[in-house]
Design brief:
By secondary structure, this protein is of the alpha+beta class. Helices cover 17% and strands 33% of the residues. The chain is built from 5 helices and 14 strands. A hairpin with a 2-residue loop joins strand 7 and strand 8. The longest helix has 12 residues. The chain is globular.
């Protein structure tokens, strides 16, 4: 794995990251990441999930490595490889689009039609110190072909619960695609989502990575799931969904 300096963690941080484990075996460890925690990097001077993986360091100094990322405010399933061979295997599987990621999101109204595929090219743009994704024409310079599948799970007068599946892996893809069809995610102010709902404020970006299916280094397909956290469930129930 990569050589890097260990990060000193408090007992509370070690206990927290261990409590987020939803699957672990000899090759991988999967977590249910809380909202508000960066996967890697970021400008906020606080430990990221990547830093917290030092809680799993072995005596030889090796530690798990994240296979993919989630946005800071997105909760849910995220996977790390525990060995260099597993990291290589999973990295190739991810590039080959053999990971199947399923998300749940809250929106202000059901999409029309209730299910479908969004195909809209995306381009990364820098505005000040922030990075955004924009929908562009398919032949636009820097545009990347992008596809997302969606289906409506439940509706009420106050909103809708939708299931989302990114078929490509662009930054902020689901958020931008849903905004593109006029259904920005609740709490997603960057892409036009409202901070207030018919049932009260949206505490954060209401997007949760609920399930991940991936080829396992030992063979076969492994699926891990994480139930939505309390803030997501509370707003969903309040919206009558």
């Amino acid at each position: 794995m990569k050589t890097r300096q260990p990060v000193a963690l408090s007992e509370e941080e070690i206990a927290a990251v261990r409590s987020w484990v939803i699957h672990e075996d000899a090759h991988v460890v999967a977590f249910s990441k809380p909202s508000g925690l960066s996967s890697q990097g970021g400008r906020i001077k606080a430990h990221t999930l990547d830093d917290l993986l030092w809680a799993f360091a072995r005596s030889n100094g090796k530690r798990p490595e994240l296979v993919h990322r989630l946005d800071r405010d997105t909760s849910g399933v995220i996977l790390a490889a525990k060995t260099k061979p597993a990291a290589g295997f999973l990295g190739k599987a991810l590039q080959a689009r053999k990971f199947r990621k399923t998300y749940q999101a809250l929106v202000s109204a059901a999409p029309e039609p209730r299910a479908g595929v969004i195909e809209a090219a995306l381009r990364r743009e820098e505005i000040g110190r922030e990075s955004y994704m924009r929908v562009v024409d398919a032949d636009a310079p820097g545009g990347q072909a992008s596809q997302s599948r969606y289906r409506t799970l439940s509706t009420s007068e106050a909103g809708a619960l939708v299931e989302l599946e990114p078929m490509t892996g662009r930054m902020h893809q689901l958020r931008v695609h849903m905004a593109h069809i006029g259904r920005p995610l609740m709490g997603d102010v960057r892409y036009g989502g409202a901070l207030t709902t018919a049932a009260g404020p949206a505490p954060r970006l209401m997007l949760h990575a609920s399930k991940l299916a991936f080829p396992h280094p030992e063979g076969g397909l492994k699926t891990v799931e994480a139930p939505p956290p309390e803030d997501f469930q509370t707003l969903r129930v309040a919206l009558g969904l």
